[in-house]
Amino acid sequence: MSIPSQGVNIAFATQNKKSNEVGYVAPTNWYQTRSNRITFGAKQMDEMFPFQLGSEITPPGVFKAGVYGKGEIDLIVHLEHFIGHILRGVFGSVTTVEDAKWDNATNAPETTGDTPGVNTHTFKFDPAGSHILPWMGMRMKVPGLSSAQVYGEQAVDGKIDALRINIPAAGLITATVSLCSRIVTFPLATTVNGWAYANGYEDANSAAHAGTGSFLIGGVKYPITSLSIDVINNLTKPEQEMVVGSYFPDDFVPLSRMIRLSMMYKWENPTLYKKIMAGQDTNTDWDTMPFIQDTSGVTKAVDATFFSQGNIPGSTERNMLKFIGNRVAWQLERGGLEFAPQNIIMVPFSATLLTPATGQDYASISVVNAATYA
Predict the structure, then answer these.
(1) What is the pLDDT of residue 115?
(2) Phi-psi region of 250 (alpha: psi -120 to 50; beta: other; left: phi over 0)
(3) Nearest-angstrom CA–CA distance, 178 and 164
(4) Distances (CA, A) of 140 to 18, 59, 231
């Protein structure tokens, strides 16, 4: 008998500590979400017995050196509940201004509460250092042969090593979450049926729609047909983190962190192309200096804002997702321009966010909604 996968249920939680540390408290607030695709599971580190003098010429045996969790989860970016915990996990720091919304005049959350029930959550790389990524847990229910048979995989002590937010010209914003986990277990139905969740599913109307919003480069709106935002935490590999006496990696330490942008520019005029090729728009020759844009006042180097289809429950305001980068180096993607009959001219650009001037944030993603994230 074949089993359809549509009955799979996935949930995340933030842990207070690693599970084998003193003071660890198992998560009680698990936030569930729907997903388009899940490729997550236990990764077993199987190794062959070494060849020895007098052995056969074929492998004599195998042993399990360790196990950990690894994989990706695709989802539609709903702006209620769940997405805040993902952003908290990938950035490491969140500040919340309750009963306020984003102020476009100052390019910051309002400091006075004049919109009851509307909260602004701003996620940034933690200034205390790259080790402040929170530990996270994941639960995944898997259907059995009957409604009474439900199995489940649980992964704890996880850290998010990458988040890609895909923003199309027309359609819903989607995201891919990449997660590493120290410990994976596969309990039976009697345990899984007792799993509780802190929230219901997000409202489908809160999904951010790419057709409603703007994407600005240095305060100028360009015709962009697709956009991807990649938040990358380069974590240590499980093999590096194995310690004597344990089947599990000891940690996942961020060795470097960065954000990259990829976009498709619909050719309108050569100004942007010229800036990126020549370093600035007055020169006509190729220049070894890249086109780097810095924030000036409230005009951000990159400023992307997208709104949901529906309003925040009980409010006239819509859910909002806002990305800001303060120092950005642009480049022409490999392959360059493509020309073909019956095609419009499209130019692939990418960008890397750089460390900004003193007093500015590296980057931030803000969510305006009615939820509060711990």
Answers:
(1) 82
(2) alpha
(3) 9
(4) 20, 36, 24
Question: CB neighbours of 160 closer than 8 A, spacing ≥ 6?
Answer: 86, 89, 90, 133, 136, 177, 178, 179, 233
CA distance 225 to 229: 14
How is residue 337 written in tokens?
Answer: 């321009």
Q: Which of 65, 82, 64, 63 is nearest to 73 (CA)?
A: 82
pLDDT single digits (tens) 256-274: 999 999 999 998 888 888 8
Contact 32, 201 (CB under 8 A): yes
Residue with tokens 């493509």: 338
Nearest to 15 by CA among 138, 123, 127, 122: 138
Cα–Cα dist 142/152, whole Å: 5
Domain boundaries in the chain?
Answer: 5-45+65-369
Tokens of 93: 């720091």
pLDDT digits (tens, 9 = 90+) for 238-248: 989 999 999 99
Smallest CA-to-CA distance from 231 within 334, 316, 130 is with 130
CB 206 within 8 A of CB 308: yes
Q: Which residues of the chain have pLDDT under 70?
A: 1, 128-131, 188-193, 374
Residue type, 4: P
Q: Which two tokens stand for residue 313?
A: 């429950």
pLDDT for 373 equals 73
Q: What is the pTM of this model?
A: 0.91
How far apart are the C-alpha atoms of 71 and 30, rounded to whole Å?
19
Q: Give me the pLDDT at residue 129, please.
A: 60
